[in-house]
Specification:
This protein is 41% helix and 13% strand. It is α+β, with helices and mostly antiparallel strands. Helix 2 crosses helix 4 and helix 13 (272-284) packs parallel to helix 15. The protein is elongated, with a radius of gyration of 28 Å. It starts with a helix and ends with a helix.
């Protein structure tokens, strides 16, 4: 009875503390919606002066998420309106607010963009996710600063950051790099964790997640971040992402809890903000209630009579810690979020989502479920793609545009300066880098606007364009095949656009497709991990639909659908344009296997489109590039039993 009475008394104390703190915080918020922040030199005598930085308002608002008090709802709505007004083109944010004198001193950055997007919510849109995903270093980690970079080839990224190329912006960057501890190449672990939190388990790149986790496991959190000099800030984002389904972060639970408990025992928290973050992390990770009680008592004892907690430094000007930013508002909101809703009998009752799905059954009669197709404007077209693996969309090119496509090919052949031979080939595989680039650039001008009428470019990106070339010959049939996987097809769907540039029929090698075959064939495949159909050639040909096509017609195919074309017995080259489309917010996946790969396994690498194409030509990736996964290799050859069972199951599913 005594323990129950003590718990009841502490619950009442926590409730009163939270209400007092929320009332104080509401009076501190400015009419604009901004929460106050301050900055000061830290080496000499401190002189805290008002400053206006976006991330303090964003983090303060985020700390109140889930706190169901009337004041907190009103505060979050006001801060959302304020932060929305601070947003710049393409949904990016900078460190300083627009009204601040130093607003243009820094470029847009990944940290403010992620945190402000989280605070604003769905009204921010998702266009900036594509830009964040492009803003990564060769190891797959997010750069802190969003700058034009030669290695980032994304046209949308370059366009969004075009103002950074102006003379005025360049002059400001010189000031920044010369007079601060910032560098264009900065990569910071808490920044990466915040971006991962924003992107969520569906979009967060494995390489970035793995790097953050490895830093925590190595205990080098402080060394790997220039600005957040407190590991509890990092742990907060990790714990939230673990709750939201990042399984790798969930695996850090015991390690993080043990470090926080050790810090609590030794008085190792440098500020009220660190203490509040630590309590919130324990609750998110469903830690031992006794450990939570210890931190809750410490936090209650440090609350000031007026209801707030101390002005805690939340951000530094670099590893030297010679300059800092602080905010009572952020400390107080974080404490509110950590304490609100505590029940001493039910600490940390939030269940974890594993973030994983069972892999599709490998039995031949089991179809992969119809996956939601993203990025296709017309829902009926999307459904047809999910069900059948292809859709014909009619003629999209004029006769003049078809002729222009043929001219591009003729110029490419001239630049190759060699015979094209009599075998079928795809220009993505030709060795001349400059010719491949020319083809993609010219076809993009011709075809990208046409394809954009069918897709939503925020969700689906046209990665590159090439030619599929079949010279006149009776010996140039590539045979039934699947196009290379561009993404992890267990989680997402990529497509190929096929646009004939001559009329096609049974005599010149037109397209044949096996409807629904993407649902029972290999999801892991590439140039180096082929899937073959030699055992079922007659069955595939019998099951396929023949498309007699008009020049300029657009056909979209799911990348895994079985298709083929017979020999070209005409007198002219059979020419088609060929486009690769993939979801714009997830990394490409490149599968590889050779004699160095463990038997029965496949190496999976993350890639952008340039590195994907390079690996097609180079073979095994450089030793510095490590696979993100080692997967079981699927059976290479389609057996008659598996094919016929899949064909029957598809027919039954379609009624």
């Amino acid at each position: 009875m005594r323990a129950e009475s003590e718990a009841s008394s502490m619950n009442e104390q926590i409730e009163a503390s939270v209400e007092l703190a929320a009332a104080w915080l509401a009076t501190e918020q400015k009419a604009s919606g901004e929460f106050p922040s301050f900055s000061s030199p830290l080496i000499a005598a401190q002189d805290w002066q008002p400053d206006s930085v976006n991330f303090v308002t964003a983090l303060t608002s985020l700390a109140l998420e889930g706190v169901d008090l009337p004041q907190t709802k009103a505060m979050r709505e006001l801060s959302t309106a304020y932060l929305t007004g601070q947003r710049e083109g393409a949904g990016l944010w900078r460190y300083w607010a627009k009204a601040a004198e130093l607003h243009d001193y820094t470029p847009p950055d990944a940290d403010d963009t992620a945190c402000c997007s989280l605070a604003v919510g769905s009204s921010a849109g998702t266009a900036n996710q594509k830009l964040l995903l492009a803003n990564r270093d060769p190891l797959g980690r997010f750069y802190t600063w969003m700058l034009p970079r030669s290695e980032i080839r994304s046209l949308s990224y370059r366009w969004a950051l075009r103002s950074e190329r102006s003379g005025a912006a360049q002059a400001r960057r010189v000031e920044l790099w010369e007079n601060s501890e910032a560098s264009p190449s900065d990569v910071d672990v808490t920044v990466n964790a915040n971006v991962i939190r924003y992107l969520g388990p569906q979009l967060a790149p494995v390489a970035a997640v793995e790097w953050v986790a490895s830093v925590v496991e190595a205990g080098t959190e402080i060394e790997e971040d220039h600005w957040y000099r407190s590991r509890t800030s990092l742990y907060r984002s990790i714990a939230i992402s673990a709750r939201d389904g990042i399984e790798r972060f969930a695996g850090l639970r015991n390690l993080v809890i043990s470090r926080i408990v050790k810090d609590a025992a030794s008085g190792g928290f440098r500020s009220d903000l660190e203490l509040a973050d630590a309590l919130r992390v324990l609750r998110l990770f469903d830690a031992d209630p006794e450990d939570c009680v210890v931190l809750a008592k410490m936090l209650l004892q440090r609350q000031r009579p007026e209801g707030c907690w101390e002005r805690s430094i939340c951000y530094y000007g670099g590893p030297q810690e010679s300059f800092g930013w602080a905010s009572e508002a952020l400390s107080t909101a974080t404490a509110i979020g950590a304490l609100h809703g505590i029940d001493l009998g039910e600490f940390g009752a939030t269940p974890f989502s594993s973030g994983t799905e069972d892999l599709p059954d490998s039995a031949p009669v089991t179809l992969a479920p119809l996956r939601k197709i993203v990025g296709i404007k017309d829902p009926e077209v999307a459904h047809a793609l999910a069900r059948d693996g292809f859709v014909r969309l009619g003629v999209i090119l004029t006769a003049e545009e078809v002729a222009r496509g043929q001219e591009i090919f003729a110029e490419a052949v001239r630049r190759m300066n060699r015979p094209i031979g009599d075998a079928w080939f795809h220009t993505i595989l030709i060795p001349e880098d400059d010719v491949r680039a020319f083809i993609t650039e010219e076809l993009e001008v011709l075809l990208a606007p046409k394809i954009a009428e069918v897709i939503d470019p925020e969700q689906l990106e046209l990665m590159r364009l090439d030619f599929s070339v079949k010279p006149p010959s009776t010996n140039n049939e590539p045979g039934p095949h699947q196009d290379y996987a561009l993404v992890d097809e267990r989680e997402a769907t990529s497509f190929y656009a096929w646009i004939p540039l001559v009329d096609m029929n049974e005599f010149n090698g037109t397209l044949h497709v096996v409807p629904g075959s993407h649902r029972y064939t290999n999801m892991i495949r590439s140039f180096h991990v082929p899937s073959t159909f030699d055992e079922v050639l007659d069955s595939v040909r019998a099951a396929a639909l023949r498309f007699d096509c008009l020049a300029g017609e657009l056909i979209l195919m799911v990348s895994g659908v079985i298709h083929f074309s017979p020999p070209n017995s005409s007198d002219e080259v059979r020419l088609a344009a060929h486009g690769m489309l993939a979801p714009s917010k997830i990394p490409l996946k490149f599968y590889f296997a050779d004699e160095q790969t463990p038997e029965g396994k496949v190496e999976a690498y993350e890639a952008d489109i340039d590195s994907y194409v390079n690996q097609l030509h180079q073979g095994r990736p450089h030793p510095d590039v490590q696979p993100i996964q080692i997967l079981e290799r699927p059976p290479q050859s389609m057996t008659p039993e598996r094919f016929l069972a899949g064909l029957r199951a598809t027919t039954d599913a379609q009624g």
